[in-house]
Write a structure and sequence with these properties.
With 393 residues, the protein is an alpha+beta fold. It folds into 2 domains: 109 residues, Rieske [2Fe-2S] iron-sulphur domain (Rieske Iron-sulfur Protein); 232 residues, Naphthalene 1,2-dioxygenase Alpha Subunit, Chain A, domain 1 (Alpha-Beta Complex). It is globular and about 80 Å long. The chain starts with a helix and ends in a 47-residue tail after the last helix. It contains 10 helices and 19 strands. The longest helix is centred in the last third of the chain and has 18 residues. Helix content is 22%, strand content 27%. The strands form 4 sheets. It has an 8-stranded mixed beta sheet. Strands 2-3-4-9 form a 4-stranded antiparallel beta sheet. Strands 5-6-7-8 form a 4-stranded antiparallel beta sheet, with no helix packed on it.
């Protein structure tokens, strides 16, 4: 178990906090390209900061703090102009670097006005990759934005499902280092509800008989052996990776868990499918709600049951009350890697997985998954149709 102080160290993400400073060393998605095409000025909250993402008329993008330094009006209601954003109150004009480049009335009264040169707002660099707008919140120089395959591939149909989760980001990530939950949460629990409702279960039941975890250059590989398999299976030889610090990769999918603040997380689920003959690449963005229209937590699929498990731990899981067992060693390893990377940042070093050399990023970065052995994970294969017995009411 963790102490309360240790739990706060790993869960608090605001400016100046140990974890907040670590997460700011990595590029984080802050919106999708269709979002910004639909609305040129977007309010967003990331890592505890209230920000505004905008697309200027010249096509450039900027991410700046929401509060105008003049009289405090929100730039979320601002106007995207030729190369920056204007405050709606008095027209103060800021570029993507946060510099004030025009103060209309002061400039009119004093053509030599230099006051604007002293005014700046917080700003962050942004880039587009894989249908997402990414931002870097750390100190300069920024590392390269990793061209992981799922984002860099071009000839694909790409879908991005977005869920705003009312819980801390670490609950989502602990789950990714906990393979044994698949047996119960996704197999037994879903089968239990399918039986009650007269439906086919979504997953075959297969128990873990062996698990292992290996740190690699971009994160941690999770490997397993399921009942009926052996160590020649793709699940064991290759496994699937957690991408440090806040992503999870499966064949054809990639999840990014971006802290909005200490008690809310934006979950991006990215899927890709190769285009067929004569098809054009496409991008679809959808909301993926965690609640039913009646306000109950959904439990009707793999990802909804994950969300249930994360949300019901509370806004911030009280880890001083947990009792970790042998099957939780992946979680323990992950938390150690977080603490080691926090220590590196505090020493002025790069944390785990940072890429500085652009030459390493010129091609797509391929992360090995079970697909490299020609098969999908057995745990997610749909079982053959079987008679379903519905209990008498």
């Amino acid at each position: 178990m963790l102490t309360q102080e240790e739990n706060e160290r790993l869960t608090q993400v605001g400016p100046g906090t140990p974890m907040g400073e670590l997460l700011r060393r990595y590029w984080q998605p802050v919106a999708t390209v269709p979002d910004l095409d639909r609305e040129s000025v977007l309010a967003t909250r990331v890592l505890g900061e209230n920000l505004v993402l905008y697309k200027a008329k010249n096509g450039s993008m900027g991410l700046v703090e929401q509060r105008c330094p003049h009289r405090g009006v929100s730039l979320a209601y601002g106007m995207a102009d030729a190369e920056g954003i204007r405050c709606p109150y008095h027209g103060w004009y800021f570029n993507s670097e946060g510099r004030c480049i025009e103060q209309p009335y002061d400039d009119m009264e004093d053509p030599g006005n230099t006051f604007k040169d002293k005014v700046t707002i917080k700003s962050y660099p942004v880039q587009v990759l894989g249908g997402l707008v990414w931002a870097y919140f750390g100190p300069a120089p920024a590392p390269v934005l990793p061209r992981f395959e799922v984002f860099a591939m071009e000839d694909v149909h790409r879908t991005i499902d977005i869920t705003n989760l009312p819980c801390n980001w670490l609950q989502c990530m602990d789950n990714s280092l906990d393979p044994s939950h698949v047996d119960w949460l996704h197999a037994e629990y879903l089968a239990y509800h399918a039986l009650r409702e007269g439906r086919e279960p979504q997953m075959r039941r297969a128990k873990h008989t062996k698990m292992a975890f290996d740190v690699f250059e971009y994160g941690i590989y999770k490997r397993r052996v399921l009942e009926g398999d052996d160590e020649s299976s793709a699940d064991w030889v290759i496994g699937h990776p957690m991408i440090f610090p806040n992503s999870n990769c499966d064949p054809g999918t990639f999840q990014v868990r971006v802290p909005i603040d200490d008690t809310n997380t934006m979950h991006y689920l990215i899927r890709t499918k190769p285009v067929g003959g004569g098809e054009e690449p496409s991008l679809e963005v959808k909301d993926f709600p965690w609640a039913t229209p009646e306000g109950k937590i959904r439990i009707d699929g793999v990802f909804p049951t994950d969300y249930m498990a994360w949300i019901t731990q509370g806004p911030v899981a009280p880890r001083p009350l947990e009792h970790l067992g042998r099957t939780d060693r992946g979680i323990i390893l992950y938390r150690q890697l977080l603490n080691d990377s926090i220590a590196k940042v505090q020493r002025g070093e790069d944390p785990h997985g940072i890429i500085r050399d652009p030459a390493m990023n010129e091609q797509m970065i391929h992360i090995r998954t079970e697909n490299d052995m020609g098969g999908a994970r057995r745990a997610y294969q749909t079982p053959p149709a079987q008679p379903v017995t519905v209990p008498a009411s």
